[in-house]
Amino acid sequence: MIELSHLFLLISCIYLIFSNVSLYAFLAFLSSAIIFYISFNIGKKFSFLVKVKELCNYKRDEKIGLILMVIGIIFLVLDLLWVRDIPLFNPEVRRFLNVGFTLISRFFILGWAIYLASSNLDKKRAIIYTLIFSAMVMLIGYRTSVIVLLISSIFALYYKGEIKNRELLALFSIVFLIFLLMSIIRLMVLKVSGNPIISRISLTMSVYDIIFNYFNGSFNYYLHYSAILSYLGLAKAPRAVIANFLGIYGVTITPTVVGAVVGDYGTLAIIPYFGILGMFLGFYYMIAKKLKGIYLGVYSVLAAYTLVSIESGILDLDVIFYYFLGLLLCIYAILSRKLRK
After folding, report:
1. Quick one: residue 270, left, alpha or beta (phi over 0 = left, psi -120 to 50 = alpha)?
2. Mean pLDDT value across residues 283-311
3. Residue 7: inside a domain, yes or no?
């Protein structure tokens, strides 16, 4: 079975292949992916801590998923009404979106993943609904949200046993085409030429290379600190901070997950960071496969964001909240076994 660790290592290698970073930056990036891969497999071995199948209540989980979806749709509509435009076709208005509305609207993604992992919805309808919902989320103009919705839905169906490996590869190809389409639309609207995929990878990795060589440990925890406080208006957004450090204003720049860690804590921090992250997700993966329902739904979203973080980093309050939620679910699953003894 294809696991998150396989995809994380594969995508990390693709980023390295299509970039031109310095030797030590290359080795640090590759080492991070390898550490994650190894620690993920170590984490899987602790699945014996959870054996309580009575934790599952799929009807309850379905309702939770539906509630989150409704909340997400309401705030997505409010966000569009706030700017009175469609950010997909006018990227300039994205900076006027309401930060709070945008954050809450992404609850839709979590809700849909939980619903898919809990319900008996057949594969065909699940795929059709996912494509419809992705078109809806696409209106807000953030490619990341669309990609996370698609990937998390695929993971939920895959680990439920609804789709096979061959279908998984086909669906990931569709995700790539949708991402390519959105990137082309963005370039056309901005009247910019170039390869929408390779140029993005090259730009992101060049930023990572600069951070590694010139700002190694220089941010002093500020990037992850601002990931939380920026939503409260108490700090700049972390990607804006990176852009400002590079002398660029009015835009945000993604640093890669490795760049964010190296910039905040230094090169050696990749060992505990990716070691802990990999072990946690490896352990949670086994729980999600075993219990399904809300456990699988949340894991699917975490897995999607982890893959996306290879480029963007884990620097959003709602994403950090999802990891914390996954941790709480793991703790609950472990303690439930002990309480039933």
Report:
1. alpha
2. 95
3. no
Q: pTM score, two decimals?
A: 0.93
CA distances from 216 to 25, 237, 262, 276 (A): 11, 19, 6, 21
259 has a pLDDT exceeding 90: yes
Give the pLDDT confidence score for residue 125 in this predicted structure.
95
* CA–CA dist 160, 168 (Å, integer): 12
Determine, yes or no, domain membership for 215. Answer: no
Q: Are 298 and 113 in contact (CB under 8 A)?
A: yes
Total structural domains within the chain? 1
Domain that holds residue 187: 22-194+256-339
Identify whether 153 is part of a domain: yes
Which whole number is the average pLDDT over 58-86? Answer: 95
Separation of alpha carbons 5 and 307, rounded Å:
9
For residue 20, count other CB atoms closer than 10 A to its CB. 10
> Structure tokens of 317?
């309050």
In a domain, 83, yes or no: yes
Angle (deg, nearest 10), helices 143-160 and 123-138 = 170
